[in-house]
């Protein structure tokens, strides 16, 4: 790629120009860009959930200098506030907040087929959900299928019957009845209801079932909660003292422009008695949804409508593809912005895609 093409692609990305109105190299450069905050050249800040980096003497420990940690936190708060305001005003379709505990996907209104502003948090734990409850943040757990869990897990039902907490519930019920309160007036104390709630909340921490979805005005409450939540910052390890990573497709206050790492390759594959050259392109980094779609369009036009791609995903973020059943999906099939269309992947990730003569096939896991 020529320096002129790289510079033109960077400018077109920043200016949000049509990516298909220039040469192929320029379009490619434009489609591998993203905005990130914070940025520390000596540390990898994505992914945060599965980082294997270990703190060594060569890596500065931010947590040891409180002044630096406070400055990073203040800068991060300003960037987070700027990005959320862009989302609310419709100038940003989505952005990610990546911490060591969970990842949050914020979506603008109408994105993903949901009419209001929304936020997807995964994975969550009982402690995180209790924190939401204390702050009055209303949320749903759309992946959790309570009837299936109850009917298909007999061993869990037996566990509920033998649960030592059952005796406490029975004692409380007897005490209320002795005070003249009829059991029928408190349906939440019925054993079937109690069993269902225990099945609902058992063994979902750190799993896809723990996905919490916040919508409407409660998204603002979630933003305020995250903005002031000190537990988002790790106390130990290579990321100690460093705020969560913010990723977005548009510029925001304090953001740094970065590009994905792209490496070309070529192999000779035996086809019968001859060798056929096959070219590969390895792209690493946080490939945002908009980038992936545009790259597929670019490869389709430059590779004679024949190419295939293998994706390595963060499995913990697969629930982001879920459309909560209690939300009415808005039909956006005629809209040019594909991000407004509801996902049909459920709790799976896209792992393979192939284009053959303009016909796409794909695999999920």
UniProtKB/TrEMBL annotation:
GO biological process, one term: nuclear DNA replication
Subcellular location: Nucleus
Gene Ontology cellular-component terms listed: nucleus
Keyword field: Developmental protein, Nucleus
Alphabetical list of InterPro entries matching this protein: Donson
Family, per entry: Belongs to the DONSON family.
Protein name as it appears in the record: Uncharacterized protein
Organism annotation: Paramuricea clavata (Red gorgonian)
Lineage start: Eukaryota, Metazoa, Cnidaria, Anthozoa, Octocorallia
